[in-house]
Amino acid sequence: MNGAVRRLARSALSSLAFPSAQACPGSAPGVITSLRALSAARSVSPDECYDVVIVGGGMVGAAVAALLGGNRMTQQMRVAVLDVKPQPLSFTPAPVPGLRVSTITPGSIGVLKAAGAWEEVEALSAPFVDMQVWDAAAPGHIRWSARDLGEERMGVVAENPLLQASLLRAAQRSGGRTEFLWPAELRGLRLPDEQGRPHPGCSHGLAELDLADGRTLVARLVVAADGSASRVRQMAGLRTWGWGYGQRGVVATVSTAEPHVTAFQRFLPTGPLALLPVRGGLSSIVWSTTPEAAAALEALGPREFAAAVNKALLDPPASAASGFAPVSSLAEALGRMVGAGAGGGGGGWREPPRAVELVGSSPKSFPLQLKQAGRFVLPRLALVGDAAHAVHPLAGQGVNLGLGDAGALAEALRGAVAGGSDPGDARLLGEAYEAPRRRAVLAMTAAMDGVKRAFAVQAPPFAAVRGLGLGLINAVGPVRNGIMNYAMMGNT
Amino acid sequence: MALRPSRPVQPATRRLRAPAPPPPGPILAPLRRFLASPSTAASPAAGASVDPREAAKFGALAASWWSPSGPFAPLHALNPARVRFVRESLAACRGGDAGAPEPLKGLRVLDVGCGGGVLSESLARLGASVTGIDVAAASVAVAAAHAGGDPLVAGRVSYRCISAEDLAASGTGGFDAVIASEVLEHVRRPHDFLAVLASLLAPPEASPGAAVIISTINRTPAAWAFAIAGAEYVARVVPPGTHSFKKFVTPQELAIMADASGLKLWHASGMAPLGPGGAWALTGALDVNYIATLRRAGEVQAGGAEGPGAGPGAEAGAGAGAERQ
Ligand SMILES: Cc1cc2nc3c(=O)[nH]c(=O)nc-3n(C[C@H](O)[C@H](O)[C@H](O)COP(=O)(O)OP(=O)(O)OC[C@H]3O[C@@H](n4cnc5c(N)ncnc54)[C@H](O)[C@@H]3O)c2cc1C
Predict the structure, then answer these.
(1) Distance separating alpha carbons of residues B178 and B190, to the nearest angstrom
(2) Assign residue B309 a region: left if phi > 0, alpha if psi is -120 to 50, beta otherwise?
(3) Distance, CA of B280 to CA of B284 (rounded, Å)
(4) Record-annotated residues binding S-adenosyl-L-methionine (chain B) (predicted)?
C-alpha cells in the first residue's frame, strides 16, 4: 500500500502547492509519517513561527497584544507587534493635554480593564457624568446622565498617546510572550488563498511577512492594525468602500470659565461641535465643519477662537418657519403614543461653560471620511481598528469601535486555543470575529452617517423634525436610555 | 520521482467520488466521516497502480477536507465542541488542569478514523503527541499533507493507513487516550471494535486515567430525523447512504459494550448546533450526537463513577434523552 499512499500524498501535496514534497520511507504498511520531510527545502522550525503578528502598534494593535497577554488561555501565544516607528511605552502628561483625545465608553473601559491598562488610563483622564446633545436649528435637547444608568460615570476623555502607551506597557508587563519589533517596515506579505491553500512561495501553509531589513516573519495569524491607509489591507487585495464628507474636523484645547463634567455636543448647520472635559480642568473641542470654515478657525487667535466656540454653542436656535404644521401634528401623535408630550424634559437643560481662550498647541484639522473594508478577515488575516473601518469621529466612536474589535478578536483567539483550532482559521475568524464586528460597525456607521446627513440638511422642515425628534426622545426615558446604552457601549 | 507500489494497493475506483478502502480487518471500519457511503465500498484491486487522473481527484479532495465551505463544513463546525469535551474529560481523568493552554501535553493519543486530520490537528495543538489512523489511503495522504502546513502540528502528529485491528495486532499500543469520533456507527461489530480500542490503551501502571472517547449518533427518532432524513436527504450535506439508522448506537448499548471490554461509561455529553451562528455546543441532551468517555472499570469505583461536572448529561448507562422508541 506504500506506493499508492506515496503517490496520493504527492498529488495531494502538489495540489497544496508544497514544493519538493516527498513521501516518507517506511516499512510498515501504509506508513506516511515523518512530516518534517515534506518540506525539506526552506522549511521553518516551530520556534520560528509567531502565533500572531500585529502590524501597527497604535491604540488598537496595542490593545490586541495586551488582551492576548492578559488572558491565561492566550498568554502562551508568541506575539509580535511591529511598527514603522518606535512607539512610546510610557506617557508623561504635558501641562496642557494633547489635541488627539478619545471619549472612552463603558464598553471600552471593560476592554481596558481586561487588558490591564485601565488604572493607568483612569489616573490621567477626565471623567464625564452627563452628555447633552442639542440642535442649532430648532429647540429641544437630549441629556443623559450616568445616574440614570446607575453608573458613577458615563465614560472618560483620554489622550490617545495615554491610551496607546498604557496598552503597550500592559502588553509588555503581562507575562505573555510579546515582542516589539520597531522600527520595522512591512515590504511584502504572503497569505494562503481563499480556500486556505498555501501561497505558492511558501514551504508551509502559514503567512509570511517580509520586512525592509531583510527579515521574514512566519505567522499563523496576521493582524492588520496599521490604520486607515493600511498597507496590509492593500497587500491582501482587500478593497474598501466609502466616501469623504467634504468636511474637516478641527481639534483644539480651550480653557473655560468654570470646570465641568458634561460632554456637550451641538449640531450646527455645518456639522457637530463637541466640548469635552479633559485633564487639568480644560476642555477639548472637536468641531466638524466645511474646509473653508476649518481654515478660518485654524487661523484665529486664542480669544477669537474661544469667541467662535461660544457663539456656535450659545446662540439661540434659528426659528423653524415653514412646513412646521404637518411635522408638529406627527410629533403630537407620536407623543400620545408614547404617553408623553412633545416637549423637552428628561434632565433639564444645562448651559455649557464659556470658553475663555485656546491653550497648548494651535488648532489642527483633518478630513472626515467614512471608509470600510469589504471584508475583515481572510485565511490568516484579520483587520482591526481603522484598517477595517474609519468612521466619522462624530461621537468619538473611532477608538471605541477599534477597542471593540480588539476585544472580540482576543475572545475569538481564546476560543481557538480552547478548542484546539488554528488561530488563522478563516472560518473561526469569520464566525467569532468578523460577523459580530461587522454588525456593530455597520450599525454605528449607519447611525453616524444618518445623523450626519440628517443634520447636514438645512431646509426648515427637516430642522423642525430634528428639533422635535430630540425633544421627544429626551422625554421618553427608556428610549433615551436605550439609545444611549447603544452609543455608550459601542459594541452591542 | 516514480514510485512503484511495493505491495498491492487500493486504487480509487473511477466511478466513485470518494476513494473506498478495502475491508482491512475483521471489522469494517471504513469510510470515515461522510467520506463515502457503504454502498460505494469496493474490493481492492490488487496490484493496480494509481491513475494520474485519480491522483488529481485526490488533490481536489484534499482541498475539500479542509475547505471552509466544502462538504466537510459540518465536521469543522462540530470539531471545537468535541475538542472541548476531550480537553475537559482527559484533564478530569488524569487530574490535570483543563484551563491550561496545552492540557494534553505529554500524552500519546490515538485518533482512530482520522480522515483528513481535522481532530488530530486540534489534539496536537492541545499538546498531545497524536497518531492518526484511517483505512482510506487518500484521507491519510490529505491529512499528512495538511499537517505539513504548520511545523508545530507536523512535529506532533503522524498518520498511518491502517485499521485499529491491524495496529493492535502489530503490537503497537500504549496510548494514554484512544479516540474514535464518528466511527462507531460505521463499524460492523461495534462490540469487537470497542475491545480493540481498549486493548490499545497503555496499562494502568503506565498510564493511570487512560481513557477511550467515543462520539457517535444515538438511535432515536430525533437522530433519524436529524442525521438521516435531515442531513442526508434534505440538506445533502453528506452523501445519502452514509449513515444506516440500524447501526446507530444508544448510550445504554455503548455502556453495555464498554462493560464487556472492561471499560465503564464514565460520562457523556450531547453535541448540538445550538450556539451562536450555528456553532456546535456541548449539551445535556444525548438524543442525537453524543460523546462519551469510557474508563477502565478498575479505575472508577462502582457507584462512585461520577464524571466531571463539565460533562452535562448522562450517568453511565442511563443517558438523559436516550432512546425514546
Ligand atoms: C485628528 C484625529 C482625531 C480623532 N479624534 C477622535 C476622537 O476624538 N475620538 C475617537 O474615538 N476617535 C478619533 N479619531 C479616530 C482615531 O484616532 C482612530 O480611530 C484610531 O487612532 C485608530 O487606531 P488604530 O490603532 O486602528 O490606527 P492608528 O492609530 O492609525 O495606528 C496605526 C499604527 O500603524 C503603524 N503603521 C502604519 N503603517 C504601517 C506599516 N506599513 N508597517 C508597520 N506599521 C505601520 C503606524 O505607525 C501607527 O502606529 C480621530 C482621528 C484623527 C485622525
Answers:
(1) 15
(2) alpha
(3) 13
(4) 82, 113, 134, 181
What letter would DSSP give residue B315? B
**Which chain B residue lies closest to A419 (C-alpha atoms)?**
B80
The model's pLDDT over A456-489, given as tens digits with 9 standing for 90+, comes to 444 333 444 444 445 444 444 434 444 444 344 3
Q: What is the DSSP string of A320-388?
A: P-TTHHHHHHHHHHHHHHTTS-SS--SS---PPPPEEEEEEEEEEEEEEEEEEES-SEETTEEE-GGGT
Q: Report CA dihedral (A415, A418, A423, A428) to the nearest 10 degrees.
A: -40
Lowest mean pLDDT among A62-71, A75-84, A324-333: A324-333
Asked whether A227 and A233 are in contact (CB, 8 A), the reply is no
Residues 192-211 of A with CB under 8 A from B: 195-198, 204-206
Select from A8, A68, A208 the residue whose CB has the most chain B CBs within 10 Å, as the one to mutate to test that interface. A8
| Model pLDDT, residue A394 | 58
- The answer to whether residues A285 and A275 touch, using CB atoms and an 8 Å cutoff, is yes
Is B82 assigned a ligand-binding role in the annotation? Answer: yes
Bridge partners, residue B249, by sequence: none
Query: Any CB–CB contact under 8 A between A435 and chain B?
Result: yes
The CA distance from B299 to B208, in Å, is: 8
- pLDDT at res. A13: 37
pLDDT digits (tens, 9 = 90+) for B23-57: 332 222 222 333 333 333 333 322 233 344 444 44
Strand order in the sheet with B177-181: B157-161, B129-134, B108-112, B177-181, B211-217, B289-296, B263-272, B281-283
The model's confidence at residue A143, banded by pLDDT at 50, 70 and 90, is confident
- DSSP H or E segment with residue B78: helix B73-94
Q: Which residues pair with A156 in a beta bridge?
A: A104, A127
Contact B150 A49 (CB under 8 A): yes
- State yes or no: pLDDT of B122 exceeds 60: yes
The type of residue at B142 is V
DSSP B94-140: HT--TTSSSTTTT-EEEEET-TTSHHHHHHHHTT-EEEEEES-HHHH
Residues on chain A touching B103 (C-beta within 8 angstroms): none
B84: nearest CA partner in chain A: A419
The protein residue whose alpha carbon is closest to atom 27 in ligand 1 is: A227
Fold of A49-124+158-245+364-489: FAD/NAD(P)-binding domain (3.50.50)
Which of A35, A195, A428 lies nearest to residue B154, judging by beta carbons? A35
List the grid coordinates of B155: 512535529
Whole-prediction pTM: 0.81
Q: Which three cell numbers stand for residue A352?
A: 455649557
- Residues in Cβ contact with A112 at an 8 Å cutoff, skipping those fewer than 6 apart: A63, A104, A118, A121, A163, A166, A167, A403
Q: How big is chain B by its Cα radius of gyration, in Å?
A: 19
Place of cell 503506565: B206
| Strand partners of residue A80 | A53, A179
Helices H, strands E: what count in chain A?
15, 19
Domains, chain B, ordered by start: 56-319 (3.40.50.150)
Predicted local confidence at residue B150, as pLDDT: 95
User: Could you tell me if the CB of A56 is within 6 A of ligand 1?
Assistant: yes
Q: Closest Cα to residue A55, out of A233, A241, A237, A240?
A: A233
